User: Fold these one by one.
Assistant:
Number 1:
Amino acid sequence: MPATTIDSMVQRKLIEILRILYENHHPIGARLIADRMNERGYPIGERGVRYHLRILDERGLTQRQGYDGRVITELGINELNNALVGDRLGFIISRIEKLIYDTTFNLRTGQGNVIINMSIIDKNDIERTMDVVRHVIYSDYPVSPYIKLIEEGTVTSDIRIPEGKVGLATMCSITIDGILMKSGIPVNTKYGGILKVEDRKPVNFEDIIVYNGTTVDPMRIFISKKMTRVLDAVDKGSGRLLANLREIPASALSEARIILESVMQSGIGGIAGIGKPGSPVFDAPVDNGKVGIAVYAGVNAMAAVEESGIQVNTSPISTIIDFRELKKLE
Amino acid sequence: MNEIMFIISKIESMMYEVTFDPVKGNGKIITNLSIIDEADFKEVIGFLRQAAHSGLAVSPYIKIIRPGEKIGDVRIEKGKIGIATLCSITIDGVLLKAGVPVKPKFGGVVEIHDGLPLRFTDMLTYDSTTIDPLDVLMSQELTSITEMVNTGSGKILANLREAPMAARERIEQVLDSLIKAGFSCILEVGEPNSDILGVQVGRDKLGIAIIGGTNPMALVQEHGIDINTQEMSLLIDISEMSHIDEIK
């Protein structure tokens, strides 16, 4: 949420005062600092500046010199260089990173927490929905067969199923990022996109949205804009599937391949393609020194349900759940 | 191989094409082209007028393209009508041509309370998406333009750009001349280095929030009328546009 907190405002003022001191080679006092602050759009008085200076002094970032003059310390200059890096807006990536951290699924034991997408449908639509989901899961595209039905009226801290509705949890492909991360591979979940397939093979991404530039989930956007053609892809071999792309360091590729092999076997998710170092994957750009891994999204089955005219409300990358609670859909 | 292109590239090339001079009142502007059914025309114009009078349009100038007529690469089919309305990126083009290095950042949803903008509640940055953010947000049922028009409180589409604080005076001059030319779309101009509508700006920058050009179309859509809008699709000379109150 891009809300301003008092703390972040104090933080920004502290940094701004450090900048003013840094730009001044001579010690300057609170009144002069206050004037400069006002020029830069921070409404603050002399007393306010003194209050902030006291905090900076305590942290060792500034130092008193002479009568009421301040200078920036070595530590202060370091702080200035690192400041505000983490001070960014609450984009979807923040939720992804939290859930990746909470993922504990172990490929060897087959136990632990995985990330799920939550879809809510009308109770009366459940049979038709399951037919479509089964149709997609047992097609030529690797989509995880693990699901969980959640009864009406269920209320937990993460899940809320209204009366007359049923929840359907599907495996979220971001679980793979969690598994990679817990194996010590730094993973950067980068894009959600629409992947065009022809002859049942992925061709190229037609549209992509970067996870750290949006507050609305990309998959949700593509589904509600009716951009998917999952049923066409399943029935005719050509269509548009949801997929996402993550980057890992090129040096970790051989280890990642072994993990991804085992991910496929355990039915957690399906890899659409692995790129070459620094090269685009299905036309989606990848940074130098990185390798892109495209994975079919777990929500494809639910996108197909929506395509078949059933009303669904899907929240991708919803929450974590113990893998034991999921059942393989036969 | 066809390279994936983020929307910021399209925005910047459109900004470059803008030649509109708000003082002289001539030159080229960027428009969104909406296609509607001929049968809905009267009703749609009614909503567009309502939006313009509530300050929810970039400007009250529009252009009607009749069935069979061609505009740009688009020919309007029989039974359809095209309506070109101003796109807010025109403002970025005008600032750019006035020598202000302006950087469009994102499209988002702004919460309005009793006529005053409160904060951005959702956003999509222009360098992170291949589809237009306002188009995306319009289809997410996140807006309540109708409520805004009727009560003065609601959620509308808006976008944000940053400019260097050193250019502040020049920016104010340009925005003043735009307001005089009938562009009532400026939502808020932030203080240097200060949050604007709850969003941080870059170092030594100030933010400028502007009403999204697709708000009138979102209003039409909220009333269940089919409207197909292509954002930033056409460059038109301002002299070809007419005031919405003159349209019958």
Number 2:
Amino acid sequence: MSRSVTATLGVVLGVVGIAALAAPGITTPLPTGDAFVILVGLVLILGAVAQVQRRRHTELDYAETPDAELSVELPTPGDDLDRRLGRLRLTRFNEAERHRIRERIGDVAAATIRRRERVSAEAARQALEEGSWTTDPFAAAFFTGRVPEAPTTDRVRELLDRESPFKRRAVRAVDAVERLLVTDDPEGDDD
Amino acid sequence: MTEDDADEPGRPDGGRAVVDEGGEVDEPSVGPDDAERAAADPDERGENTVAGATDEATVSTDEAAGPTAVRVRSSRLRSTNHWVGFAALVFGAAGLGALVRSRPLMLAAVVGVGYLAYANTTEAPEPELAVERRLSTEEPESGDTVEVTVVVENVGEAVLPDLRVVEQVPEALAVTDGPARAVTALRPGARMTFSYSVLARRGDYRFEGLTVIARNTSGSRERELDVETEPAAVTCLAPIDATATVPLRGLTSPYTGRVATDSSGEGTEFASLREYQHGDPLSRIDWNTYARDRTLTTMEFREERMATVVVVLDLRAEAYVQAGEDGPHAVDRGIDAARRVFNSLLDTGDRVGIAAFATEPVWLAPGAGPTHRARARELLSTHPALSPTPPEGRVYVRYTLRRLAQRLDDDAQVVFVSPMPDETSAVIARSLHVRGHAVTVVSPDPTLRDTPGHRLAAVDRSNRLNDLRGSDVRVVDWAGDERLAEALERARRRWSG
């Protein structure tokens, strides 16, 4: 509605302007004082600023053309854990997330210990909690939550590492779990 | 305007289109027939000018129907906000002109007003298009390249100053050459052609849609359409070959595809003796007894019959995993394995069927013979549930298990083909096993060992397979870089060892 009003006003003013070319006399009743012209100028400049602001706050809204050429990409098993480990920096204070990651690795670790040592599930869990399942003190510390029983130099090195101790230990725990299978399990080799 | 530059044909994300078949076709992606057509009918030229492309006529000697009109499935009109803020120039020039009393500045503002009028008075055209799609072959072998040529004709009255066409390539097919899209301007009656290549893979695919975007000249308004075209289909069947290489001895039963039963009858294994009845074959008379006490007795043997094997595929969304980005994914490998196992079992005289855990029912009752073989090939190649892309619906595992249990004969054996990505797959194998079916799991390995997450998943899967072996399920772990025959042979050694 306002659009048509302004359009009409614009057309009327345009016609008056063109008419003024032929008969300059018809513009005499219009105010032409200095103050008025400066006021009009300032209002116009304000209008320009408003337009600039409008542009800045308006996104171009072109239709997105679909990615027709790409075929679907499928995940590799374990992508999810990698993503979560990569996000640890963002979820630094998210204890629940750390707990979930520890659970996930712990489940696989317990199953692997059970398979390797042929022990019960409880015994495997206990080995995890005691840290007796691996020779890597940092991997063991991932589940025990205690200070790794490692030489001071190694611990200092861990502190200086770019990655958080949690992530570092998580990775070492995964490595240790994998080693359980590789070292001396003929079935594991055969898989 | 910088945006205007991006609107030119040949922009980085847009395809290059050839407008109007005819003489100097310098476009590499155009099919050879265009040039032929131009040579054949040099005088059939009309007039046409489009977007700086060749000024050639719409020439068509296609015996085929040519482009057919499309049906609009959905249409959406919108402002692109392309000119938003342009009025700042008008206001600025006029304001400054008023403040410093400069006539040229005031006049400059008038020019801006003209531009704005131009931008806002026109509406995006409503494209009326006819489309023809040509495929270099409709029945490619898996791995072949199929060239798709799309001809788009403006059959409406309006000029389409900025037309973008994006092909709706079936999701599972990867485009190997050329973008499947084009940008151009089309006058009424003018045509453009673009082409691209896709890599064929097992399955049945339909090309039946285009995304069309048409803008007005100033680019301020645009219309986005989803149109349905005359469908073109590609059917890529799995190869018939390569079955003899799968050593299945020991895979299903130690009797090479035959199972012994408790009933007496014909066979090779002695079962019992009974009194001779008239009509018993001479070869089954026990001559030793006859020599001893002159009575005719007939030997009975343990009856043997064909084994019944059902190949069960795991097609849940969870099974759609892949080791890395290259190569076939686990389900594709599984279906390939299923095909080989199926054919091998058929060759050794078993009755084989197919079932699947999928969003829709997949069932081929066990059978034998060439017709059965052909039916299985068709099913494994083109059944929609066996699509190379993950299903969207849910798979009801319990229901499918129950249904499968009803269908399976008591002594039927099961070959369960699954990458074993989760506990559910192990549950399936175990449930079939406890129902008394001999279960063999053929598992394409989808794991990698490059990152901690991948390594943990690999260990997890290895534990799962180990647990299954512990509960007497036979497991064939098929590594990605290994032929199926090798994996089967390795598994067989383990079973017999």
Number 3:
Amino acid sequence: MMNSQREMNITDTQTFQNFDAPLLKVDSIKKYFPVKTSVGKPQKWLKAVDGVNFEIKKDSVFAIVGESGCGKSTIARLILKLLSLSGGKIFFKNKDVSNISRDQLKQFRRSVQIIFQDPFASLNPRMRIVDILSEPFKIHKTVPKGEIKDRVVQLLQRVGLTAEALNKYPHEFSGGQRQRICIARALTMLPELIVADEPLSALDVLIQAQILNLLQDIRKETSVSLIFISHDLKVVRYLSDEVAVMYLGRIVEMAKTEDLFQSPKHPYTELLLASAPKIRAVSKHYAASSEDNYQYDVPSPIDIPSGCPFHPRCSKRFGICDKAVPELKDISGGRLAACHLY
Amino acid sequence: MSFSLLDVNNLSVFFKTDKGHLKVVSDLSFNIEKSEVFGLVGESGCGKSLTALSILRILPPNSFADGKILFNKKNLLSLNEAEMRQIRGRDISIIFQEPMTSLNPVLTVGRQIAEALTAHFDISQKEATSRTIELLRAVKIPSPELKIKDYPHQMSGGMRQRVMIAIAIACNPSLLIADEPTTALDVTIQAQILELLQGLRKERQMAVLLITHDLSIISEQADRVAIMYAGRIMELANTDELFSNPLHPYTVGLLESLPVAKGISLKPIHGFVPSPENFPKGCKFSDRCHQAIEECSLAEPELVEISEKHFVRCILINGVLE
């Protein structure tokens, strides 16, 4: 059954030509939101995502980290085509999906699924679980009607729930259980890529660990790729193969996860790693934030600082930093960083 | 005879329901010494916030507290409202998780800080303004002379939390309750706020009751820790001792559920926290504990001192089993 579904995916004609092609390629994507200004004043733009490139290999976990407002959730929505691009292109299995027709979009959405942060807001409170989970089957008609219920039960069991859940409504479940239902929904169409946008941050730590284990198991079984968006560095280090660190709409550093955590190159990555509280690793008197950093909040993406957007908070800034925007480039052996130091 | 700054003795919190009184915090006892950081950790619903609210006597109307809370030898639970108002905000103050909902959106931050001062001290408006500017400087808000005229919505989350702290420390309290003070903030801002709180604590000899669900924050910030589960303290020890020698299966489970390194699989505790009406008999953790034996569900264990200042509520550890 799995195969029959896979065969209907959009890009089959092309997969044979490119075994090593990335599953998803994002090519200098941009998303600008208009900002309200007074009449006669020039239009201002909030540059939520400003020229981001990355590739995701098959069967891998790609993490995007950064603080609120850095554009990581916008990227999730751009990939899912829940938002339209202001510029750039997105390739899924080598096929440009930036401007595809409605029919193709329907196909595309089978292969790419999303899990949102807040499991309370992402399930319709008036639908029973059985309706929520059978809706994708009804829309995409991948399974004969008579079999849908069996499939839904299988899915529930897969995420650690029982058939008892079928006739309940979302409010009857705890946060962790709802997130399991959201994961089950993402799995209905056997996707090749799941975008998980802060899937753990609304959950308690023990429940986080349960969901994390569940995601790991599903990855092993289905070899689905994952884009994991998070601000929790511990989880990112645990789960991902590659990481991109974002700051104000741009990627400032990208590397293999262990490399990045072992030796961060960009000063912003260093600040992030130093700021994250660690159990017993460092003493109480660690020096994460210098007096320098004290002065600054994360700047608003409407008024992005000139030059390197991080320069007002950076302890290593020098002459050129407030003048020229550094490009993301290879600084040594495949390590990418956008910083004038390199 | 020395006494603690705050001595909580057999504190219980009840909710009034149709079916009678529901005990959600049960016989809690701990003390906080002068200028120490005492951490209270637990999952949502374990009663840690209710404990904080009962100290300030600001519990929601459908609930009430029983027991003793001695603050400088005075029992807060037996004071009348006027006496309590003298203490609230002056000797004990609180900061909450969400700074946006804790600040009044239609008043300038300067006015809100000054209100905390004029409520407790007989000072002129001018004096209040200059002290407000001092306070904003103390919480490291840049150009405080201008910022006193800002409204909360003009500030970022981190700046708002600084304003909340400025209000809380306005009267030099001897105890500051910080209820998840950084949960709504980004990690770099969180580090700034925690560093600020530590600095203020040292400067002003102020004790801090730090409530959080984040064990790593506790391990960096607190001097002593109490781990709460189902309205009870399961383990209480010095921070160093607790993290190097965790004894209660729940504490161990919490620590093992944190991702450490790739490849080391997580061992989360199965199930979820039951609601207070469904707490198991005996040890409240017995239904989720993988070490549970038959005796665990018979009687609830006491919180026992295992080694110096290390208390655990578990019959397997306490060794009271014959």
Number 4:
Amino acid sequence: MTSTSTEAPGVSKGGSLLASDVRFAVLTAVGIALFPFLLHPFGGYSTLATQIAIVSIASIGFNLLLGYAGTLSYGHAMFYGGGGYIAAILMLRAMPQHPNLWLAVIGATLATAVLAILIGALTVRLYGIYFALLTLAFAQMVYFIVEQAKDWTNGDDGLQSLPNALLPLGAWNLDLTTPLPSLALGPFGNLNELRLWYVFAGICLLLVLLLARTLTRSQFGEILGAIRENEQRSTLIGFNAPAYRLAAFAISGALTGLAGALRALFDGSVPIDSIGIDRSGSFVIYTVVGGVQTLFGPVAGTAVIMFLENVLSAKTPAWRLIEGLIFVGVIVFLPRGLSTVLKQQRDKNPRAIFVRSLRPSNEEPDPLLKPSGEGRRSGPMSIIETFKLGKLFGHFAAVRDVDFRVDPGELRAVIGPNGAGKTTFFNLLSGTIAPTSGTMNYKGRDVSRLSGTARVHLGIAKAFQTASLYPDQTVRQNCRLAALARVQGPFRLQVFRRSTRLDEVDAIAERAMGRLDLLGVADVRAGDLSHGDKKRLDIAIALATQPQILLLDEPVAGMSKDEARKTESLIRKLSTEMTVLVIEHDMEMVMGISDSITVLHQGTILATGTPAEIQANPRVQEAYLGGHSEAELAHG
Amino acid sequence: MEAFFQALLGGLVLGLIYIAIAVGLTIIFGTLRLVNFAHGAFYAIGAYVGLVIAQHIGIGWAFIAAPVAVALFAILLDRLVLRSFYDKEPTSQLLVTFGIALVVEESLRLIFGATTQQYAMPAALQGSVTLGPITYPAYRLLFAGGVILMLVLVWLFIEKTNYGLIVRAGIRDRVMVQLLGGNIRLASSIVFALGAAIAGLVGAAATPIYGIDPATGFAFLVPSFVVVVVGGLGSFWGAVLGGLLIGELQSLTNLAYAPASSVIIYLCMALVLLFRPQGLLGESEVIRQS
Amino acid sequence: MKQTLSRGRFVAGTAGAAALTFGGGPYVIAAPTKEITIGLNVPQSGPYAEQGQDQLRAYHLAIDEVNAKGGIMGMKVKWTEGDDQTKPGVATENAQRMIERDGAVMITGGSSTGTAVAVSGLCQQKNTIFMAALTHGDETTNQNCHKHTFRRYNDAYMSAQSLARTLVTKYGTGKWFHITADYAWGHSVYENLTAVVEPKGAKTIKNVLTPFPGTKDFSPMLQQAQAAKPDVLVLTEFGADMVTCLNQAAQFGLTKSTKILVPLVDEYMAKGTKDNFDNVVSTAPFYWKYHAAKYPGAKKFVDAFQKRYGFPPSNGAETAYADIYIYKMAVEKAGSIDPAKVIAVLESTKFQFTKEQEWYRKEDHQGVNSCLVLEGIPESQRGPGGFEYAKVLEVHEGDKVVAPIGSLACKMEPA
């Protein structure tokens, strides 16, 4: 993946290790250290504490995908079991004499990361149930392979009696099965119930928590959240959404694989069910019960459910019913999980927890960010030019044979009656949909096969007919995201630094808000804005991508007269700096601001000319008035 | 060769069972846009209701009581829980229905025990029928015939009735359904109850063949989901095509290498999702013109 | 439930013994207490649930009987239970919990070779005795044998030998078709059976493996069997799977056209298959009707079981019941619950409870006791409850049919 040439300025606000990070690490470490003793009076025991610590790592990994990327995998057992099998096979085959825990764990984690990248590359384009079922399908295939490769995996019997791995650490060679020193703690048991394993697993958990915390607060986490909240918008401000989701999938898979490897080495065995469908389901339960999109939620959920399974299962046959009721209760009443009970619900509006899109993406596969070759040469002056551009939906030609040309700096209006194909035409220009025929040149270069994301980075930006925003973010943050895409490029795995350290991003966002007269509401949640402000914010977002051509789909639709005139003058000002294409039904505005007008009718161009020429054109009048009332014209 | 034809026939019957469950899944999705992981639970409840009625009253009544009971349960579930999830993300729907499936399965386990139970089919249907070189159990053939009849009825419902109009409209254009306004509440309840009742009836009718234990619902749900996805979520004929394809594929794989029969359907689904994500007969998203 | 000192790592100890640490294990034997805990790890859901539940009944009966007569060496026996769901991973987790939290000194249970093998490995690690109950696959005491694991139940080798000896004159030649559960036990049975019948002239047409667990529809496999027209159809399925499979076989007319062999049966499988089990040939290590008539110990057990639960025990229940008494005998003879001492007794002692005099072989810890070859009878002749399901064709002495020591792949850990 390439990034834009604009490097982030190396200005950092504050030191690299903040006091709050240290405090977080210390408090978490104390919590992990106390956990087994708190569990003890309730019938927990040291093995359970260690297993919870290990499995929590998998749940945290799972939550990165479910909570932060917003997609549900029903196949994470392939990474968990996969990590376990790889670690076990490494122990048995590669180093039977000198089992080294580092090698087994790191080897297994890397191998599962590779597996996750391979499978993720095939799956991340799908959403919702499609993604869940596709990951399930891959997990079942992995299960089948593991079960069949009996020579390596011992088939259904799983791998047993792994050698006790030693942990080389400097001069020591630690045996993790060594008990800690004896120290009676009254009702909380005795320190020597714990083995060194818990210390090791606890440190791993602490590191993974720190990683997850950094990651979700980093620029990467911020962009992942933006994509989750509004993928359409994120794509059209220039983020390569599949690449981000693939990265999340790979990290998630690797962490789950790490947990699987640790578990195998701790237990000394890998059972076949560690890779089965019920295992995949268990991560869903742990994470949802504990709380998606929270740092400690997955840990809490894992602890609660594993504790129930281990302790309650010996007491009542209804324990799984209890587990199911907890699960349903949490989804219905606490969509963000148990852990939100503890802290104040910050969010009054828990709507978009997961990716909203239902349908699989019907975009063309994303080509590399290179033009597929030079198109036909066009006049040196044009910024956008199309040749015989067309789009078929089934047998319906929404747009056909459109030859269209806009010169730099022009303000062109695209008008036409309902169903004329205007929005489809804009979607073709912005790259949201791929044409079924014809080509499109941008500054003389054929961009027909480029994705919307790639076109944003070339300078084509779009504001939507229905404002496409990040409703849970502030106005400022909405604009910052677009600026961030401009500055950082379509994909950058910046998992350690926050975007707040990028002054350039702030500056661009500030300018964009200023241009659309939004500075007064900069800190208002976008979802709470008035209709007119929402529409203007959508334009500001497009503007923050620093476009050379701006596509505005009905910018004043639904606005009051005053707002419409205000917006009109803002657009007029913008057009002095860039090319503007605008679809509009408000004829007063169209005639008032356009340099020229193109009329679309039934998917083809009916006429192009100055406002005066268009007004005088009899064919245009025919198209507009033939069977359409004025009322219909007013509302798209 | 005989084995091959036998496998073809077996695949057909198996496919029809999948279709019977999948068709409810698909019309519920098509109309309500609800991804229902609890559909297997409807099958299981129908089977257990059928079991109790068949053992105490008679097998004929079982086939009436099961769909009615499941339809009532579905309406209750819809009103109490699912209604608020219609407009949520599919992932939320997946999770809540997965949870409901879990609760139903465990409740059934507590009530009926974990063991497989079965009730005998009528004595007259216990034998097998010989068709040329092929001998096939009579009950299964009758079952297959019943499924075909039911599919015809469902098809007529969709194509010829006013409620069916809403199903059709829902599949093709969500917005139009919303424009129909007041009717939609009642209609969606009817469609949901109908889809559930079909699953309940299939559960009752299939139990003499397969037996029932609390996990059976989920065991049939997964292949039915595969069928729906392969055929195209929301498409009636997609479910039919997908069911036949999956049934035959599984049956023929059994002939070739039986251990692969469980994985082959996932392979098939993965290929469809990768190359034609809307399913074989699914309509790609209808883009409205402005 | 009242929690005592014994929770956690402090495990009840030998009466009067000083604290001592077991070699390798993390356990500390604390001051003498008057209780010991036994872990009962059986499937209560999944295809083998019925077998698991019946074993549980027998465990409860045996433990109550033992406690009524003063416990084991004066110590009251407590139990802790777990549902292993027939999944090796869950079984291991349960056993771990029983050993570490509940302080179980012995784990017993089973119903699947997969879970038995997994738990066996764990118990070896944890220095805890594992009395594997209902597990029939060879590997429990062969490829995956362990010092701490003892299996009294017949293994697949013994069943195959017994079947072959009884049947070879009747079905030895001809075409055999196998439908086999695709996991350790199924493979073990298939290999043993073909190894003994093929040299005698039987021809194996095909072996179709069925995914385990979770197969609901056996029709594709049964159709193949139907098309192949075998003389003998072997259904190597167990528990609810066998019930489903045999009932579906009957729907295809196979029970009438072919001789059916089910390598291992119990009372619940016979009940579930009703008349379809008529004439089916199988093996079992114990049959309440036969043994109660022959051995006073068995009669006492069957009567007590019948009195408490209202129906007779299945053969899995019998082995569960005997396992408790065998463990009691071994501890009392060793004078300690120290696993090493208990193992030494079990390896060298002959005992008799519900069957003839029997023993465990030192080399592989396989129990040597008789194997019954049974033939199913119609439902109308089975009496109330349908538990009287078969007639005994032949009884084979354990040491005649058990795998020769020289043939074993078992590598036992040193004491």
